[in-house]
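dumping this here so i dont lose it again. seq + smiles for zinc ion
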Amino acid sequence: MHVTTRRLVRPFLARPLAQTLTRLAGATILLLSLAHRSEAEIRPQGGVSGTESGFAVVGVDVIPMDRDQVLENQTVIVIDGRITSVGGADETSVPDGLSRIDGRRRYLMPGLVDLHVHVRRPDEYLSYLAYGVTTVMHLGGSATRGRQLLEDRRQITAGELLGPNIYATERVLDGDPPVASGAYSLASPEEARRTVAELAAAGFDFVKIYNNVSLPVFTAIVDEARKHGLPVFGHVPRGFDPLAAMREGQNAVVHTEEFFFTYFDGPRSTTEMDRSYVADRSKIPALVDVVFANDVAIMPDLSFTFTNLLMWDSLDHLWMDAELSYQHPNTVSDWRSFNINRREEIENFVVRGQWKYELLQELTRQFQQAGILQVIGTDASLPGLFPGKAAHRELTELVKAGLSNFDALSIGTRNAGEFVARYIDEKARFGRIEPGYRADMVLVGENPLADVRHARLVEAVAVNGRWVERAELDRQRSALATRYRTLTEVGEQVDAALADNGQGAAVRTVLSAHADDGEIAATIEQRINSTGYAAAAAGELERARRILEIGTELFPTSANAWDSLAEIALMQGDRRKSIEYYRKALEVDPDFTNAVEQLEKILAEGPV
Ligand SMILES: [Zn+2]
């Protein structure tokens, strides 16, 4: 169906793409690879200025999500970012000065919410909005990314940047040694308290704990977080009673599969896995009781497990997915190198995945029956989980698990609003269409209460009271895709040059062809970096070092390039050169945390 709504906003300011060049420091995206990255970014064009303070959607069928119902032929009025009135179209008059949007024969539902994402770059915001996801929660990444998200949030709220509402933490909190790459490694309660206090002072919304946190560290984290009014979300620590974490104050478990690996003793390793394992379902009621009694919220994240099952079978569906063209080439190359179905013991992964999947479906049903607060969290954009689209896979998965369409949509909308109000911001009101609520809404072509897949038929979104039509999102996303094709081609040229025995001159030729394009330069730098790390991971340290030397030669002012070379030199046992390169990194960027930490470590080991 073609949408003929009146244009509300002025055309988005045309700005050159690639305005911002941000370099990520140190180890970055969780769980992906050891490659350091330097990433260039395209920022969704915002800049809706103007005097219009609101709009009215007229004649629309509203899905308010307070209960399983459709209110037909309504007028919804939005002023200053809030829904101010919802009433029958015939009785409701639209105040002067508000734009009118024709909503007839369409459905207006609350915006979807994905409370477990890892934002890699701001251009992903467009994909969230294109799929009707108007709020995301970032569950950890690099320190640089975390700070960037706080700034993005400021710009989004000010209308300077187009994107979803954001809640965020910074790096995750892990024990010593950490399992998560890029995590804070907390060896003592004192260290835990200091780190939590710093995160609170920096303006983050919560802390996230990871597998290897010890009980004393965990207790300190919770206690310190309480003092600063921060909730504690995360995995279930592996080293102590999984129910103790919830009794001690963990507020949310960010994937139900945590219970498979802890409470249900599911095999953590796939080598020598006992194929006679059976999850003891008689233990479920006791788990449900503890989750309920301690007000713990749950992210079923069935889509993560299901997506992995698909990927173990074949990756073809990913490479054929039309969404792939909207993913940055660095994301695509991460996904390719992750290549889940090349794992050894693939059979065991599949068998364990199936055990897990069936248990998660059962737990999702039982948590739902018990009235436990469940919310959508997908782990986008980990491999196979497309930003925005993943939330729709989760909706479908919830229905496959046996939940009603209304319950699935509640988990994707209303429950998330309750989650944020309960743990993060008691004044937050979103996830429903009723007066006083934040105007986060999606206009869809068919009734999602009849089939949750209809929620994909996004024709427009309202985010924080800003109305954005699908055509505008499509226009910006297709500009992204064009840009990404160029970056991909350059990347392939760099690969060819490096494959040719790592010739710096050949890469320099590619670089000089795009001398004035900062983003392409950053792509080349990133490509050199990741190729170097890939060589190191394959045990070819000499080749890795030669490639990363080209990186420092072409990008002498990049701290990350020096940092990477230093790391490989250290892997080769060349402490003297490693120190020299880390010092170079600090020369060009005195705040480059990873180099500071690594230098301290090396020097602590004694004289060179
Ligand atoms: Zn995650």
